[in-house]
Amino acid sequence: MNSLPEAxxxxxxRVAALGQGTWHMGESRASAVxxxxxxxxxxxxxxxxxxxxxxxxxxxxxTVVGEAIKGRxxxxxxxxxxxxxxxxxxxxxxxxxASLKRLGTERIDLYLLHWRGRYRLAETVAAFEELxxxxxxxxxxxxxxxxxxxEELLAVPDGGNVATNQVLYNLARRGMEFDLLPWSxxxxxxxxxxxxxxxxxLLRHPTLAQIAVAHGASTAxxxxxxxxxxDNVIAIPKSGSPARVEENRKAADLKLTAAxxxxxxxxxxxxxxxxxxxxx
Length: 280
Ligand code: NAP
Description:
Order of helices and strands: EEHEHEHEHEHEHEHHEHH
Number of domains: 1
Radius of gyration: 18 Å
CATH architecture: Alpha-Beta Barrel
Structural class: alpha/beta
Shape: globular
Number of strands: 9
Distance between the termini: 32 Å
Strand order of the largest sheet: 3-4-5-6-7-8-9
Oligomer: single chain
CATH class: Alpha Beta
Bound molecules: NADP nicotinamide-adenine-dinucleotide phosphate
């Protein structure tokens, strides 16, 4: 297996650019055993960034992650998120403490605002900075922020400490390539690409199928190889199946050719102009 490409955070910390998502994990006891195993196999193969949120299964996904990282905590870069409805100064701190309990750890490496809500950004950022000073989080970031949101964020006290922006990005959702991705690149802020398989919808696309057959690969690997071809973008596919996690990990072995990229551009044209950031 090829080694994974890496992305760098503003504080210099580096991470493999292929991590793991956890949305819909922890929704049933029956699936939790496979989900824990799937996450552990991914970690053991170098997919060490684990993305979760207090929202997923009302904390159930964080509990699954807590189980999966037992004995592996030091190798993992743990990401969780506060809901906008909890993102007041005191609400953010309380939400983080509840997440830490479910995760069974002393520290979340990267804590994100899940999307913009009614609380002022300055208030949420002040809470993030307080959590950082207390050692409960290592760094903080945001999610679903378009360029104008990012500009507003940079204008609040300590807003420049933002470590990442997690957004919807895959072949079928390329709008942010026009402005948000270059904006983030210029500032050295890595982008986390969520739903890199477009929640599974990309897997049946005929262009991906053609490219996959030519390489003896799967359509999931083609979709992931496309995201991995971008600098400083971290893909976080979710799979609760150990076999599919292994398959996703091997996306790093697939090198898309210039002809493959041209076929993908024809099927999923890059954005010619600004489009508002999409979100799921
Ligand atoms: P995704 O990763 O694009 O797709 C997940 C779906 O694809 C699941 O149904 C999964 O099923 C299936 N799958 C995974 N690998 C596969 C493979 N090799 N072959 C066939 N099917 C495969 O979608 P996502 O879960 O929405 O996004 C990934 C992560 O991003 C989430 O889990 C979450 O952590 C994060 N996210 C963040 C936000 C946000 O607002 N910040 C929004 C959405 C998602 P199985 O599990 O059965 O394999």
